[in-house]
Amino acid sequence: MKRTALVGASLAAILLAACSGGGGGGGSGAAQRQPGMWESTSKITQLQLTGAPPEMQARANAQVGQSQNSRECLTPEQARDPMGQMRRIMARQGPTANCTFSDQVFAGGVVRIRGTCPAAGGGSAQIALEGTFTETTMNVTMNVNAQGPASAQMPGVTGMRISAETSARRTGECPGSGTQ
Question: What is the pTM of this model?
Fold first, then answer.
């Protein structure tokens, strides 16, 4: 079951990356998230393992609904380039390093990202991230549908569906940076 936790954590990291990676982008005068300290709360809302024995699915279900909190300093550079920040963080996530995106909107208060990520051992994952943001808040939902034996990296599991939600808010300046 440790692998399910790792996969869930990787997907949560992608979600957090997108949420802490900035906002705005594109368009003159377009609103963007403000640099500073951001606090995020994420939780897995659905986790279904295709082909998993009932006891493995039960352990996966125990992860559903558990919140994970994080704090991160959003730099002015990250605030100006939210998609670049997300791609950099995803590149460190191993199986998501070679994703291709068909939709990448992070502007005008709208977040809409859709992509496909190949798995090293076969199969792929479709990722959809949708939500809204203001200069000081963000709410997004992520859905992942992974298919193929490498999708969950667990014996017998041939696919995984996971949904997660994140809400984030700016809480103030970054410590010692003078970012407001």
Answer: 0.76
